[in-house]
């Protein structure tokens, strides 16, 4: 039996659960899904600072989500640059995890295999499997949260690149003398078009009384012209980054995930209007569709659960999965 109450190597049954975690800069989403990928339970937890508190929070959430059931797999999507072997090289929006071996640490705590990838790669896999990008040939996904994560989708696969670090558009520079980013450089896209960027723009424009992105969204919905002007500026920066991705990749669709995808009905028109002026050589018909994630904030956690389930199936078949599968350390052999 492992730490989640599941028999090691147990076959998947209708009562078996697959757990998925989305570790973002400010919060962790956890989900337990059945063998068909349908969510049974969800949890949300503030993201702690440091490796040990993070591992402890994930282990505690895993126990709550598993709730004594057979847990066949655990998948984790993390903000940051994750190598093909599961190492977090750098994560500007997570505190104290750069270079950490999160996967092996969690595998040891839970005594089960952990499959690990970047959180937007996970979200993109769910969208390709069950969401907005199903049957898509060429596409991009961006998630607007504490920062901006991304994934490139091609022929039903997520492109990882040579070392696994592909798909980080939040750190492409859009203003060479711009705002200081947590990665150490200036002018990164996520400093202008993420959820945190909207919060900061609102605080600077309105002060404490009206600060915060949610307040701007609410005021815009209530017809406030000043709030709408600020939101239009935000949408310009969002469209600027999308236009750069389109020039490089020529996607047929851009899927918008993260918390701000829940407000896409408000953001869509100004973003599409700015994109039309920024893109070159594109007719209205050749511009990519901009669509919100069909799972909203849960897409990365659902994708992580899917990733874990795929890794579990690959292990049963003796095949290699698409992302790092990290096993707990083996006890020394008895002599």
* SSE sequence, one letter per element: EEEHEEEHEHEEEHHHHEHEHE
**Helix vs. strand class:** alpha/beta
The total count of strands amounts to 13
Shape: globular
Question: Unreliable runs, pLDDT <50, ≥5 residues?
Answer: 5-14
Oligomer: single chain
Instruction: Give the termini separation.
Output: 23 Å
Which sheet architecture does the biggest sheet show? 6 strands, mixed
Quote the average pLDDT: 88
How much helix, percentage-wise, in residues? 25-40%
SS strand fraction: 15-25%
Strand order of the largest sheet: 3-2-1-4-7-13
Taking Cα atoms only, what radius of gyration do you get, to the nearest Å? 20 Å
Number of helices: 9
Overview of this protein structure:
- The protein is α/β, with parallel strands linked by helices.
- 36% of the residues lie in helices and 20% in strands.
- The chain contains 9 helices and 13 strands.
- It has helices at residues 51-66, 102-110, 119-130, 190-193, 195-206, 213-221, 225-249, 264-278, 299-317; strands spanning 17-23, 27-33, 39-46, 71-78, 81-82, 88-90, 114-118, 138-144, 148-154, 157-158, 253-257, 289-292, 324-326.
- It has a 6-stranded mixed sheet with strand order 3-2-1-4-7-13. A 5-stranded mixed sheet has the order 10-9-8-11-12, sandwiched between helices.
- Strand 9 and strand 10 (157-158) form a beta hairpin.
- Helix 3 packs across helix 9 (299-317) and helix 6 crosses helix 7.
- It is globular, with a radius of gyration of 20 Å.
- It starts with 16 loop residues before the first strand and ends in a 9-residue tail after the last strand.
- Residues 5-14 have low confidence and may be disordered.
